[in-house]
């Protein structure tokens, strides 16, 4: 089974429907103001904000791994791990706003994407806590696990965006002819 086959199989994961639908409804209720909804989904920019924001936590965590590989890089790795965690909060919120407008098959992929990234954030949070307690070795191991999880989440997000066309043209204001 290829990676593409696995990603396509997630589209058929009917067990995800109930939690995926509940999450979408909850987000829509929270963003009931059309002005707020359009703003957080990036209509003023013409495309979603979530893909722009994901570069910050991913970049921070990848850079932390580079510093982990260098002697004396523990402090920088810890700070970059923290930066990624702080940046993850608005990234998640923007992703949820986008998620609320997806169709059923896209929501299936989106909810698994969110679960993978929740695992990643959990690994990085635990990594940060261990690093603060003077256990950088264990922190490095959890960071690597977090990178693996964020890689899986990224593959799912890429599939959602590029293979499924999630959100394509949904953020643009209608053009006058």
From TrEMBL:
Pfam families: DUF2231
InterPro entries: DUF2231_TM (IPR019251)
Keyword Transmembrane helix tagged: yes
Domain DUF2231 stretches: 46-169
Transmembrane segments: 80-97, 109-130, 142-162
Keywords: Membrane, Transmembrane, Transmembrane helix
Record's protein name: Uncharacterized membrane protein
Organism: Lentzea xinjiangensis
